[in-house]
């Protein structure tokens, strides 16, 4: 039996509106055109359902009973967990002049519509918005950069590892990979918002203090990697001291105050890359393995090399 491609799921639209007639009018336009709909009746409920349902499009009524639609829009746009590519349309049965329209746009809305809504025009706009969202999301997935920090993501690091490795091979240079894990005291891995905020600050710091010749990236939620050309084992340890020290000496402002940061690191280095039996990506994976072994053992040390015992740097 021939395999069939999975049909794309219907785009999901969140309608946040406490006026039943208005919400049903929108549903009657969207449903027959292939959209799925989830409802919210207050601003707070809209915020909660956006995070759980992750809709493709959002239609907010401006005059909701608890939180104004403009404020809901502002909160969503400032939430790091909410995709900036998700279109938000604000509708109103009240004033819809230039002042209100500009305020809606300042809040982050893609469109501001008075009621009654022109159904045909709305569908054309939604189709355009949805196409833009899908194309941007696709480009982001193919990107070489981590959207939170602006550093390389794993795809970007792998590409740079091949490029740096090829140059090190020709020059017969040493090559090192170091993977850092900054940990803020009192912040668990489940505290996504604070972890993201700390990751962004660590990323900015690494971009400032890292060498221009190094490839610096983010491997996971709380792991950062450096591919360091012309760097031996001793150089890798110096790099840990310098970058790790910079991170630890820069308390990270988070909700409720500042946090002290403790850094652990794993590394793998070769003296002559032309003589190495592994490629640059494998060096990166070995450095990651060294770090995770160190974290798993729970030893109060800073750094471990691949296939080496953990050591103190102080």
Report on the structure:
- The structure is a single chain.
- By secondary structure, the protein is α/β, with parallel strands linked by helices.
- Helices cover 43% and strands 22% of the residues.
- It is built from nine helices and 13 strands.
- The protein has a six-stranded mixed beta sheet.
- Helix 3 runs parallel beside helix 4.
- The protein is elongated, with a radius of gyration of 25 Å.
- The N and C termini lie far apart (65 Å).
- The N terminus is likely disordered.
List keywords for this structure.
43% helix; five-stranded parallel beta sheet; alpha/beta; Alpha-Beta Plaits; Rossmann fold; 314 residues; elongated
> Could you say which overall geometry the principal axes of the C-alpha atoms support?
elongated
Which architecture of the largest domain would the CATH scheme give at its second level?
Answer: 2-Layer Sandwich
What's the domain count? 2
What is the CATH topology descriptor of the largest domain?
Alpha-Beta Plaits
Poorly predicted sequence stretches spanning 5 or more consecutive residues:
1-7
* Mean pLDDT across every amino acid position: 87
Main beta sheet: 6 strands, mixed
Spatial strand arrangement across the major sheet: 7-8-6-11-12-13
Q: Into which percent range does the helicity of residues fall?
A: 40-55%
Backbone structural class:
alpha/beta
In short:
With 314 residues, the protein is of the alpha/beta class. It has nine helices and 13 strands. Helix 3 links the parallel strand 3 (57-61) and strand 4 (88-92).
